[in-house]
Amino acid sequence: MGGRDDISWDELKAMILSLAEQGRETDRRMQETDRRMQETDRRMQETDRQIRELKRQLGALGNRLGQFVQDMVQPAVVRLFQARGIPVHRVYPNALAKNDEGEAILEIDLLVINGDHAIAVECKSRLTSDDVDEHLDRLARFKACFTEHADKILHGAVAAMGAPEEVIRYAERQGLYVLVQADDDVVLKNRPDFEPKSW
């Protein structure tokens, strides 16, 4: 066979000691790997906790900004719409429609009304096209949810601290009034020939 079949006791002992040392080294490495994995897991849990906290804080900030916009827009809407020839006089913040079980089914940030007109205003800190689409959905459901206003001519409006020009024009094309903060005031950003859509 060309190889040795017999191994001396010293060689066998050396092999056993070597295997035992390799086993100890493997155990040590596995323990180190396990320790690192536990540390990584701990760090990931801490990161998850920090992300959840940041989301909570951002949500609270977003709510406060939305409320700020609403508070800023509320005194201006009657003046702005009356200047456009829409005879509105009353503003209801956070108008809420509920179903028969008392569950909220639709909320309007500012509901501006008079005898035969109603304007549903959505307030955002920064207006996006998704916000516009969501408000269009609200407007489509408005009369079914607010049945006491079902006979009114309904218009829609979006208001924001800021909005990109393309979003303003998109909202306008959908038939919405667009109100945006300008310095210490709120201004109507629609073109002079704008014709609002009625729902």
Quick structural overview:
By secondary structure, the chain is α/β, with parallel strands linked by helices.
Q: Main attributes?
A:
six-stranded mixed sheet; 199 residues; single chain; Trna Endonuclease, Chain: A, domain 1; 25% strand; alpha/beta
Structural class: alpha/beta
Strand coverage percent = 15-25%
For this structure, the CATH topology of the domain at 65-188 is Trna Endonuclease, Chain: A, domain 1
The SSE order reads HEEEHEHEE
**Number of contiguous helices:** 3
Assign an overall shape. Answer: rod-shaped
Proportion of helical residues: 40-55%
Radius of gyration: 33 Å
N-to-C CA distance: 97 Å
Strands across the major sheet, in which order? Answer: 1-2-3-4-5-6
CATH C-level class of the domain at 65-188: Alpha Beta
Mean pLDDT: 86
Major pleated sheet: 6 strands, mixed
The CATH architecture of the domain at 65-188 can be named as 3-Layer(aba) Sandwich
Task: Report low-confidence residues grouped into runs of 5 or more.
Answer: none
By DSSP, the count of extended strands is 6
Structure, described:
The chain has helices at residues 9-83, 129-145, 165-173; strands at residues 90-98, 104-113, 117-126, 153-162, 177-182, 185-188. It has 199 residues and is an alpha/beta fold. The protein has a domain at 65-188: 3-Layer(aba) Sandwich (Trna Endonuclease, Chain: A, domain 1), CATH 3.40.1350.10. The chain has a 6-stranded mixed sheet, with helices on both faces. β3, α2 (129-145) and β4 form a beta-alpha-beta unit.
